[in-house]
Amino acid sequence: MQSPVVVRPGCRVRYEGTIHTVAGMSGTLVRLSDELGGTAAMHLPTLVSAPGFEVIGSLAPRRLPAGLLDGLPKPAADKAL
Q1: What is the total count of domains within the chain?
Q2: Potential cystine with 31: which of 14, 17, 23, 50 (Cβ 3.0-4.6 Å)?
Q3: Is there a domain that residue 2 lies in?
Q4: Tens of pLDDT along 44-70?
C-alpha cells in the first residue's frame, strides 16, 4: 500500500518538468510558483494526476490534534492513521 500524496504550502513539486513551490492553497485550488517567477493555479486533482508529477523531498509530518480519533471504532482509527 502506497502512502498518500501530501501537498501543502512550502512543498516543492515537479510539474510539467519544472520544479515549483506550493505558494498557497484554498480548498482544492493550489497556487504554484517556479524558480523563474512564473506562477500557476490549478485544482489539486489536476496537479497530482499530471504525468511526471512528484513531491520533491518532504516536510516534517504533521501531528493530528490530540483526541481527534477518540470517538471512532478502533479499526476505523487504525485505518485513518
Answers
A1: 1
A2: 23
A3: no
A4: 999 999 999 999 976 655 566 667 778
